[in-house]
Amino acid sequence: MVLEVLSQKADDIDSEVALLHELKEIVLGFIRQIEKADFNNHEQVKALYEKAKEIEVQLTTPDYVGNSQMTLNPVNRLADVTEKLDDKRITLPTVIKTYKQQVGAMRFIGTKKYETPGDAWDAFDDELLKSKLNINLKNLYEDGDAIIGLMRHQNGFEYQLGFFTPADTAVPDGFEYEDFSDVIINTAWVYKHDDDWGVETMAFERLKADGFEPVDDWWFERYHPMRSSVDKNGNVIVDLCWFLK
């Protein structure tokens, strides 16, 4: 599986390098045209100015659609290659932010423990749980309304879905809970493609490198509504969180 992922990433890199080479040749072509001009010749300077205005109009026309065929003029090729580069997925996951949050004692209330996230999501009804809790989760702490994927390696992999609530919250029938006292959360935002997995180690090591002391025990992914939406390129920001030592 790892080799297949790496092979795909190698293909992505090759594709992006090819586009960059083409972009470089297009730009160099424009430069060579300008270098050939005689700036002591009023007519050639005027022609360059008019060409620049033509490029500006073509690149800013809202309904302009690029075409990748090599027979196109350099302006169309420039727009086409640039658009392709903009639309490419990110090559590797990247930690873009680390920080800590002091939230005090909390009670996690959610599903039973599952061995796979997919089974937990199949069994989880977040609207049902919120209605039974009858709590305004947005008022608890920053990002308090986010669904929590609580995880731990103990007797195998354990995964639960639910919400963090005040420490004394009553547990509704059919749900389970875990209590955490004096909680300080270490968070790493990871920008990645939606189907990239296994980024927890990278996030954990980055937190340590940034001077935090995350505890390698419980950790959770915080599915925040504002950051968990996939963009047009299939990329997403995820919150990976550990408790501070």
Brief description of this entry?
With 245 residues, the protein is of the alpha+beta class. The chain has six helices and six strands, in the order αααβααβββαββ. The chain has a six-stranded antiparallel barrel with strand order 1-3-2-5-6-4.
Structure notes:
The protein is an alpha+beta fold. The protein has two domains: 86 residues, no CATH class; 151 residues, Multidrug-efflux Transporter 1 Regulator Bmrr, Chain A. The chain has six helices and six strands. Strands 1-3-2-5-6-4 form a six-stranded antiparallel beta barrel. Helix 1 runs antiparallel to helix 3. It is elongated and about 85 Å long. It starts with a helix and ends with a strand. About 4% of the residues have low confidence.
- Beta-strand residue fraction: 25-35%
The CATH architecture category of the largest domain equals: Alpha-Beta Barrel
Shape: elongated
Unreliable spans are 62-70
Largest sheet: 6 strands, antiparallel, barrel
Query: Could you please say which CATH topology of the largest domain applies here?
Result: Multidrug-efflux Transporter 1 Regulator Bmrr, Chain A
| SSE ordering | HHHEHHEEEHEE
Q: Structural class of the helices, strands and pairings?
A: alpha+beta
- What is the fourth-level CATH superfamily of the largest domain? Regulatory factor, effector binding domain
Widest β-sheet, arrangement of strands: 1-3-2-5-6-4
Q: How many distinct domains? A: 2
Number of helices: 6
The CATH class of the largest domain turns out to be Alpha Beta
Mean pLDDT: 81
Please provide the count of β strands.
6
Measured between the Cα atoms of the first and last residue, the distance is: 34 Å
Rg, alpha carbons: 26 Å
